[in-house]
Design goal:
339 residues; alpha+beta
Length: 339
């Protein structure tokens, strides 16, 4: 039996299981096999093997490029086995550390709290969806399409009843537990990961797309910068950030730095200049806020040619842009008006 098959068997999941299912399986089995809860003579070793399997598979889920079909692409000949052994040894060392803890100490670790909190939030989220399907979907169906909507909604409710009703019976909504879980996530790296991601997305849409850098080039800057850091970290892993920080830095901090530069360029711009163009909408789309400028002007900058409100474009033939020179010499679109 291969190592991966063994690990999946230990946790009672399959290769198609999600990271959430992996965490749920580990949480349940950790309650059974932790040496402080299990009087069996080999409980210590069983818990080590369980946590080793979890740590290894968690890393694998986070790095899917280690699959068999892609080994040769990402690892030189013979280095994949070394990489696999390193991952296994790291997982086992982590497992031994948690196995030495008493159970009450173990459940107080950030490691265990984060797993439990995420599962609690996920369980409550599914519970709310189940309630919505059973009790609110028929009402929503009626509001949308009267009795036909109710009929369709009832068919959906009946089809999903074995799952939704079972979940509603088994789950009790607990505001205290949910609140504690959110608090735990808020003070963890998961929360900062989400916050930085939302900030990056907002700045990219609000500022990046208004900056006169071709969209392909702008996206390439993000990808190449993150890839360069990842490559450096992999090559010099002994001197760079720990592996658990690698993706956080590459996909949150690096884009944030780029976005801060774009923001500074945008906010400290000057020397406004106006440009006016005849515009047209997509003839194949009845209602579209995406425009085409005469002579295909600014075709590489879709960010300045898509808008939120179609009403402002009705009966207009021209668009007037206000461009300014950015702090770093990169032009930005600061304002526009249809007339």
């Amino acid at each position: 039996m291969e190592l991966l098959d063994k690990y999946y068997l230990i946790l009672g999941i399959n290769q198609n299981s999600t990271i959430d299912e992996l965490k749920q399986a580990y949480r349940e089995k950790a309650k059974i096999y932790h040496p402080d809860r299990n009087p069996s003579p080999n409980a210590h070793e069983q818990f080590i093997i369980l946590t080793e399997a979890y740590e290894y598979l968690k890393e694998l889920k986070a790095n899917p490029n280690t699959s068999k079909s892609q080994r040769s692409k990402y690892y030189p000949k013979g280095s994949y086995d070394n990489k696999q052994n390193e991952a296994r040894e790291k997982a086992r060392a982590q497992a031994q550390q948690y196995a030495r803890m008493r159970y009450q100490e173990f459940i107080k670790t950030e490691y265990y709290k984060n797993i439990t909190s995420l599962n609690t939030i996920f369980d409550h989220f599914i519970y709310i969806i189940a309630l919505g399907v059973v009790f609110f979907l028929p009402v929503f169906g009626y509001l949308i399409s009267k009795w036909d909507g109710i009929l369709i909604a009832l068919i959906i409710v009946a089809a999903t009843a074995p799952i939704t009703l079972t979940y509603i019976k088994q789950m009790n909504f607990n505001f205290s537990s949910l609140g504690k879980s959110f608090y735990q996530i808020f003070k963890s790296n998961y929360f900062s990961l989400v916050i930085f991601s939302l900030i990056n997305i907002f700045i990219f849409i609000r500022i990046g797309l208004q900056t006169m850098i071709p969209l392909f080039s702008l996206i390439s800057v993000y990808i190449l910068s993150s890839s360069a850091y990842m490559g450096f970290d992999i090559m010099f892993s002994k001197f760079s950030a720990q592996k658990k920080c690698r993706y956080y830095i590459a996909f949150c901090i690096i884009p944030l730095i780029i976005n801060m530069l774009l923001l500074a360029n945008y906010k400290f711009s000057n020397n406004p200049k106006s440009e006016t163009y005849v515009f047209a909408c997509d003839e194949n789309t009845q209602k579209s806020t995406y425009i085409f400028l005469k002579d295909n002007k600014y075709s590489q900058y879709p960010g300045i040619r898509v808008f939120r409100d179609i009403d402002q474009m009705l009966y207009a033939e021209y668009i007037n842009y206000t461009f300014e020179e950015g702090l770093f010499g990169i032009r930005v679109m600061k304002n526009y008006k249809f007339f």
